[in-house]
TrEMBL record:
Matching CDD domains: Tetrahydromethanopterin_reductase (cd01097)
InterPro entries xrefs: F420-G6PD/mer (IPR050564), F420_G6P_DH-rel (IPR019945), Luciferase-like_dom (IPR011251), Luciferase-like_sf (IPR036661)
Protein name: LLM class F420-dependent oxidoreductase
SUPFAM superfamilies to which the protein is assigned, alphabetical: Bacterial luciferase-like
Cross-referenced Pfam families: Bac_luciferase
Record keywords: Oxidoreductase
Domain Luciferase-like: 12-290
Length: 319
């Protein structure tokens, strides 16, 4: 079991993200994973820095902390050749601590390049072609590729690490789970859905299984839920909505009926270590073994202290 910390780049300034990653290592977390967006979710977030720059700085300032994108879309805003090069370089400078988390993307950040927003089947096909291109470039030498959506012309990644990064593929349903099994080294999800893991393993999937556990550490449950509502109220909309809305204003309008009570139900809120441990256990019971705590509480340093002194030892004892 590996326990991680989610770096929420849409609501935190770049240097603060780096500082929090350093503190996460000191608090005993095994890894951090960072969202890779061009736009934030909500108007009040006001941040969305370049994830690859942040990860590179973290790699230079930490020793054992593993790093991951959670997740990158390598098929619309980025060309997969750029991601193949970026991931290989980050694996080298981090001394083998990087995991490439990939997914089919959200309209929020991918539409900016003016190619429109593909329907779900085309998005999955683009992701398939992107993964084939990345694998091809990581095999060494010069390569070309001609897919239905993506092209590669006489390209080579010159700096390749001795051990390639693992590719962990995000899936929200059986079609994506099958793709993760075929072309990925692991699975990434956001819900404690055991049937998703079953679909992945049935299709031949094997490897790490990542998921995010929503928490909101605070002096009391209500203040935790209020802080989570301010930052994460888009979460209860579900991925069919999250993937389709175009900008923060649309998310602001779509979340106007999400209540603080809804967040208290969705997040482990407050200071009780057993409440947080029970939420974590739900994901473990579903079969996930790389769990990133996504803290929506008001005080990140208080959360790091809580994890170091109470929650971390409690979770590891249970494991």
């Amino acid at each position: 079991m590996q326990i991680g910390y989610k770096l929420f780049a849409e609501d935190v300034a770049p240097k603060e993200l780096i500082r929090r990653a350093v503190e996460a290592e000191r608090a005993g977390f095994d890894f951090v994973e960072i969202s890779d967006h061009f736009h934030p979710w909500l108007p009040q977030h006001q941040h969305s820095s370049f994830a690859w720059s942040i990860l590179s700085a973290i790699a230079a300032k930490t020793d054992s902390l593993r790093l991951a994108t959670g997740v990158t879309c390598p098929s619309i805003r980025y060309h997969p050749a750029i991601i193949a090069q970026a991931a290989a370089t980050l694996q080298i400078i981090s001394d083998g601590r990087f995991t490439l988390g990939v997914g089919a993307g959200e309209r929020l950040s991918e539409h900016i390049v003016g190619e429109g927003w593909p329907e779900i089947g085309d998005r999955h096909q683009r992701l398939r072609e992107a993964l084939e291109i990345i694998r091809l470039l990581w095999s060494g030498g010069s390569h070309s590729y001609r897919g239905d959506f993506l092209r590669l012309e006489d390209a080579r990644v010159y700096d390749l690490p001795e051990t390639l990064p693992q590719i962990v593929v995000a899936a929200g349903g059986p079609q994506a789970a099958a793709l993760a099994a075929e072309l990925g080294d692991g699975l990434f999800a956001t819900d404690p859905d055991a049937s998703l893991i079953e679909a992945w393993t049935t299709a031949g999937g094997d490897g790490p299984r990542y998921c995010e556990v929503p928490t909101a550490f605070a002096p009391d449950a209500r203040s935790g839920a209020e802080a989570a509502h301010e930052r994460f109220r888009f979460g209860p909309l579900g991925w069919k909505v999250l993937a389709e809305l175009p900008d923060p204003t649309a998310f602001d309008q779509a979340t106007q009926f999400v209540r603080v009570d809804d967040m208290e139900d969705a997040f482990a809120c407050g200071p009780d270590v057993e409440v947080h441990a029970a939420a974590f256990q739900e994901y473990r019971d579903a079969g996930f073994d790389h769990l990133a705590l996504m803290d929506g509480g008001p005080d990140p340093d208080a959360f790091f202290g809580f994890f170091r002194d109470e929650l971390g030892p409690r979770l590891r004892d249970a494991g």
